From TrEMBL:
Residues annotated as signal peptide: 1-23
Membrane-spanning segments: none
One Gene Ontology MF term: serine-type carboxypeptidase activity
One Pfam family in the UniProt entry: Peptidase_S10
Record protein name field: Carboxypeptidase C (Cathepsin A)
Domain of life, source organism: Bacteria
Keywords from the UniProt entry: Carboxypeptidase, Hydrolase, Protease, Signal
Any GO BP annotation: proteolysis
Length: 505
């Protein structure tokens, strides 16, 4: 057998070298031209550095595609990913951070090029686009403490299905979790990361995804996590519709109105975190009970609630009365700055610091999302430049900022309860929520509500934490919050490492 091994080793080496063709070559046709067909199993690696904290951190960037298999072990899709590893560090126990964005249908671009990665797109200090487009070093990246992989689910980024594949196996809450868990298990095996402490971070719908993955990885792939980070979380299957949803909007109204200087002087002169407790207390102890009573409220009681709500929201008392004490967020975005003295602007949905101009001042909702158009303005050219030119991934495929994934099956969403169960089963597993105060789509008070109801018993509350920021849905776009939020991620990762402590209660 030893003689056979000596014979096979050179042959295996030759075979390995032959298969290590660059992604650029594999994405080309025989005549050397680029193709719109995705090679389902390909990778290439380049070497880079980033300056942070006065030190130069060397790292490798692997960009590629790894296949998705169905239950017959046939390839049905290829997921595009970018994997960063700090080099010069020989540590098999180095943490691994696995990053997803949301949508559903959004490419893994936002946190990749604006939050935790080693490169950040060119924007101003508050997050608005600037030209020339491009990227620069991110001095706050968490690459110093963890390797990072950014994953694009099917039909996002450069990820694609095999022609003729059954769409129903991908596009739904539970389908998404099932195939991604299998893909992640293969990724960890391929890259020899089973010994690494593992962390998931998801933004927006990505929080639904990673909440579900926590239990799916444990129960179906026997992969136990150390932490889950929920950035601007959705409802993750936790019921808060109806009057709870209506009351929970009020603290966000307060924050956005404060930013645009629409609150009374005694509130406006205070710092935001100094007035939010008043808004939260009113929403919980007065507005919610009033909404529960409905028409049984006396006129005087209804008027008193409307007056307090107006004081805390920037909308008038009459607007609260006209909307039965439940003005919609779309109404707020349209009307907060309505009037010549206020500029007749709309405010953004995902980040209400951004303003827009509508065709008419009247109406129930803005003509467009001013924040999203601003983000696409800078992110789209930056990610295409970065992946194609700096990392050298050559293809004629379009990078899907938002891909065709609908209709999306939202039935059976138990992702929040599943995350609680995963925590109960795994004493090492911690959860952190990060939210921007000016996010009107997944508002920060809803995020707090999620936190309270993720573990109603309170027995795991020491493993749950919340961080708030002076920005919106992508709080890291504001430079100060980019620094603070990354530091919170860094602290969370370090604090979630067991340090030799046994996993037991």
């Amino acid at each position: 057998m030893r003689a056979h091994h000596r014979l096979y080793l050179p042959l295996l080496l030759i075979l390995f070298l032959c298969t290590c063709v660059s992604a650029q070559e594999k994405m080309m046709k025989k005549d050397g031209s680029l193709s719109r067909e995705l090679n389902m199993d390909v990778a290439q690696t380049s070497m880079h550095t980033v300056r942070m904290g006065g030190k130069t951190i060397p790292y490798s960037a692997t960009i590629g595609v790894q296949p998705v298999y169905d239950d017959k072990n046939e390839v049905v899709a290829g997921l595009h990913y970018t994997y960063y590893q700090r080099t010069g560090v020989d540590d098999p126990n180095r943490p691994l951070l696995i990053s997803f964005n949301g949508g559903p249908g959004s490419g893994s671009v936002w946190m990749h090029l604006a939050y935790t990665g080693p490169r950040v797109l060119n924007i101003d200090e508050e997050g608005f686009p600037v030209q020339p487009y491009g990227v620069s070093e991110n001095p706050y990246t968490v690459l110093d403490v963890a390797d990072i992989v950014y994953v694009n689910p099917v039909n996002t980024g450069f990820s694609r299905m095999v022609e003729g594949a059954d769409r129903s196996q991908f596009f739904g809450v539970n389908q998404d979790v099932t195939y991604l868990a299998d893909w992640l298990s293969n990724f960890v095996s391929r890259n020899n990361r089973w010994r690494s402490p593992k962390f998931l971070i998801g933004e927006s719908y990505g929080t639904t995804r990673v909440s579900g993955l926590a239990l799916e990885l444990q129960e179906r792939r026997w992969m136990y996590l150390n932490g889950v980070i929920l950035v601007s979380p959705t409802d993750i299957g936790i019921e808060r519709n109806g009057i709870v949803k209506a009351a929970n909007r009020l603290p966000y109204f307060t924050a956005a109105a404060w930013y645009h200087k629409q609150l009374p002087a005694d509130l406006q002169t205070k710092d935001l975190v100094g007035i939010l407790p008043e808004a939260e207390t009113f929403a919980q102890n007065e507005l919610l009970p009033a909404l529960a009573r409905g028409m049984s409220l006396t006129d005087a009681e209804k008027m008193a609630v409307a007056e307090k709500a107006a004081r805390l929201s920037g909308l008038s008392k009459q607007e609260w009365l006209d909307n039965n004490l439940m003005p919609a967020t779309s109404y707020f975005w349209k009307h907060l700055l309505r009037g010549e003295d206020r500029g007749n602007f709309t405010v953004g949905r995902l980040d209400s610091r951004y303003t827009g101009i509508d065709g008419m001042a009247s109406g129930d909702r803005p003509d467009y999302n001013s924040e999203l158009t601003s983000w696409l303005h800078s992110f789209t050219p930056a990610i295409n430049y970065y992946l194609r030119e700096e990392l050298g991934f050559k293809t004629d495929l379009q990078y899907n900022m938002f891909g065709p994934v609908h209709p999306w099956d939202r039935s059976g969403d138990e992702t929040g309860p599943n995350l609680r169960k995963a925590m109960a089963m795994n004493p090492y597993l911690n959860v952190m929520i990060q939210s921007g105060y000016f996010d009107g789509a997944t508002n920060y008070y809803d995020a707090k509500y999620n936190l309270w109801h993720l573990d109603p018993s309170g027995r795991m509350k020491d493993r749950l934490s919340f961080k708030g920021y002076y920005s919106g849905h992508m709080m890291y776009l504001r430079r100060e919050d980019l620094k603070n939020a990354n530091e919170h991620v860094r602290e969370f990762i370090k604090g979630s490492l067991p340090g030799g402590k046994s996993a037991k209660y």
